[in-house]
Design brief:
7 strands; alpha+beta; 26% strand; five-stranded antiparallel sheet; single chain
Length: 126
């Protein structure tokens, strides 16, 4: 997962409260909440993120755009703009991804959310 894809969403009131609590600017808080490579990796940035999460901040991640269908047979299918497809069996956690020609390009047993993200990145970029 690309670290720049992660962030913690907070409203303006919480943003200002965190800035005041830590004696930093709102820009510094935003950098911490975006896991900025330069300014968001300090111990203070980690504490800022912890406070945000403890006070209702919402962790989020940007994923490739795709259509997701859950069918009655317990299969989730994701179709990407480039024609690639991911299929995940929700009963077993097994996942496969196919290129636009339907050729299987990857497979993983009992996939984790993090690994599914990696598979989505590969499928979207193929």
């Amino acid at each position: 997962m690309n670290i720049e894809d992660r962030r913690i969403k907070v409203d303006g009131d919480l943003l200002r409260k965190i800035a005041k609590t830590f004696g930093v600017s709102e820009v510094t808080v935003r950098s911490a909440l975006r896991y900025d490579q330069e300014k968001g990796q300090t111990e203070k940035a980690k504490r800022i993120r912890m406070m945000a999460l403890q006070n209702g901040g919402i962790p989020s991640i940007c994923l490739p755009e795709c259509e997701t269908i859950h069918d009655a047979n317990g299969v989730m299918r994701q179709r990407f703009n480039n024609g690639a497809t991911i299929e995940v069996d929700k009963n077993t956690g097994d996942a496969k991804w196919f290129d636009k020609k339907g050729i299987k390009r990857g497979e993983e047993k009992n996939i984790s959310v993090t690994r599914l993200y990696v598979m989505q990145e590969l499928a979207a970029a193929f």
